[in-house]
Amino acid sequence: MYSRIFVCLTLGVLATAVSFCNVASAQHNDKSTEPEPIKITRNGGPPKIPDVDRDKVICFALYTVQDRILKLSAQLYPLQVDEAKEISLQINDGDQWKTVATEPIDLKGWMATFRIEDWDHSKDHQYRVTHPGGAEYGGTIRRDPTDKAEIVVAAFTGNSNTDRSMREDIVRNVKAFDPDLLFFSGDQSYDHQAHTAAWLLFGRQFGDIIRDRPTITIPDDHDVGQPNLWGAGGKVSTLPGASDGGFAMPAEYVNMVQKAQCSHLPDPFDATPVLQNISVYYTSLNVGGIDFAIVEDRKWKSGPAGLIPQQGPRPDHINDPAYDRASVDVPEARLLGERQLKFLDQWGKNWDGAVMKSILSQTIFAGGAHIHGKSNERLLADLDSNGWPQSGRARALIAMRKCFGFHIAGDQHLATVIHHGINSW
To answer: What's the DSSP call for residue 370?
Structure first.
């Protein structure tokens, strides 16, 4: 028996360049030997879907394997009227390419998903996705690294919309660590009504590392077209800022985003949709004996407007030094919801093939950030964080603590290590 080490690399795409600059300046106090200041050229503007050669219409592909089921989704550029509306998945068996499945393309999001059962996860497989017009896109479906003593996860959060450039430096550095799993925790798109264009850009930026390893992508608030998200079980939000809870964009748009980002994930624990027939994706994935629970910490969360007394400039911002913390911990407020608590309870008790547990979510279960906007806009509580509602957070942490799960989350832009507490903080 060998010990298992779990290594997590956290990368905030929004903050990477600033972090590197700060390190460089701290290491050079002698101005005569200081290097030239790092100049960052930002290519902004709205995302655009480029015209591509017709043998390049497949942009990228993502996959996972769980319980010997391979799920792989391929994202295409928009097809022309006279082009075929299907793609095929081929596997190289050592001597030749074999077509294992053909799927129709969803014309709403220009993507298709393959589901292959009885997958041999004990060895690497070379794959390629092909289109009848001549386009091909390929990579490696890795074997399950059950014999490795160290499992490496690269965790990302946010993909800046102020810079549409490629991410060569990040991709190069991540490749050097050769992670076993990639986790993109949300805000892959900051373009509220242009998800397909932003998602295609994301694929061009990160496709070179995604193509060769299992990848988890989950959408957060900006992906589904709103500044903050309290999903409230899928209801319609009617307030600016959506602080009453629910979704601001049409359900069809939300489902299109979730289908693009989550179709390659293992089958949901319970696929029953929420209100407006909005789909769900919470599930689990085992990589090398590390069992990951993938939760939707926004979808059932209650909105603060009308539920608790407003004690700041917005229903979700509290800056009154005299505020009573108990006043916002109302029994009606929900965080994960009963369905996901049931999932975590059952998942946490099942140790078949697992030596360690980890929980992946969109945001942290604490009030870790207290600056909003400018440096003088300090908050005592930001109810967008999952430090609220307190009782809902405590129920989630109790479920996580039972299996000693290590929590990896995004949203806060800067890498932070947090020691969770339940009784005292």
So the answer is: -
